[in-house]
Fold these 2 entries.
Entry 1:
Amino acid sequence: SQTIHQWPATLVQPVGSPLSLECTVEGTSNPNLYWYRQAAGRGLQLLFYSVGIGQISSEVPQNLSASRPQDRQFILSSKKLLLSDSGFYLCAWSLSGGRLYGYTFGSGTRLTVV
Amino acid sequence: TQLLEQSPQFLSIQEGENLTVYCNSSSVFSSLQWYRQEPGEGPVLLVTVVTGGEVKKLKRLTFQFGDARKDSSLHITAAQPGDTGLYLCAGGPGGFKTIFGAGTRLFVKA
């Protein structure tokens, strides 16, 4: 069966520090991978998606970046965090665009920038 | 810009009551999904509906996609404390740009 792992679960980082969140998927090949951010009282905001190794599409201009160094590994990074980067970050995977089979989400990372 | 509006934002009911939550848009969606999210966890897919007028049942949960594919509803019969959570609807015109609503937070009291 397919599983998705995301870590760390919680993170407190000072403003201006770097960030690296990692997500890995098991049990499937060539998944579409996504990074979402969820703010309190708001829906999930798509940050990045990837359809293959090295292929990254950005949806929101910001100081975050994403990389996909391996087929089932997706990394969210920042060189210098801002207070506004605080939130709940979710990694997800899908078959095709997710229209028919939906998305499988990781358990999320709660990031607090102080 | 496509938007999905969910109502109510918050709902607190007693165990055994019935409830309906709504997901509305002015745009047409090729498909619509419902997820349930518990605190500190990622959303979990409940159902996908793709055909206008479609009705799907999942135990005590009934999902309906509007005829014009612009809205959807989720009805829960005889709610239980285990139904507590954030219910999110999500829709897309196709491709990768799925839009999520802000959710309905349901609390079922024993």
Entry 2:
Amino acid sequence: DAKTTQPTSMDCAEGRAANLPCNHSTISGNEYVYWYRQIHSQGPQYIIHGLKNNETNEMASLIITEDRKSSTLILPHATLRDTAVYYCIVRVGSGGGADGLTFGKGTHLIIQP
Amino acid sequence: KAGVTQTPRYLIKTRGQQVTLSCSPISGHRSVSWYQQTPGQGLQFLFEYFSETQRNKGNFPGRFSGRQFSNSRSEMNVSTLELGDSALYLCASSSLDRGRDGYTFGSGTRLTVV
């Protein structure tokens, strides 16, 4: 699975959009981009995933660049409860994906009141 | 619907003992994975099961083992416990093989080895 690079930490004001970047320059054509988050003392929570088209669900939007070398997770109206560590994971989606999910260090997003 | 249930939530064991942790996936989910989380190593993959078959195994010693039953419930076992096995053990389930639609994680079992 391709390696990802994320900033260590980010701040965002409550009510604003939080934009979390992820670089995955070695991504392969059959690898998806997955985002999870982990709120302190809880298990990780799946947020969204995509292959090459932008995706949106009730939690967030995922924007993937045309060359697929980077992506941005957008939380449109951040609340204090969105304070968490966010993990960007690149993984083969169909028929593969050895060794489970590879969680890096993620981005610690802190929402400021 | 009910989430992923892990039991027990907390456990204290002595070095050299063995421990069994249990995970009940979301109803209908056939894929179950286990992860270990420690402050030093972060989240690390242990193993993954789908329809009672082990699909993948992470880089852990043979003291760590698991199994999945016909009802998709899973157990993991750690024998000859070491102090370094103290960690949060997380179980995750998915409806599709290898979590293609995303995994749902449980709240974990916090194991302390003394």
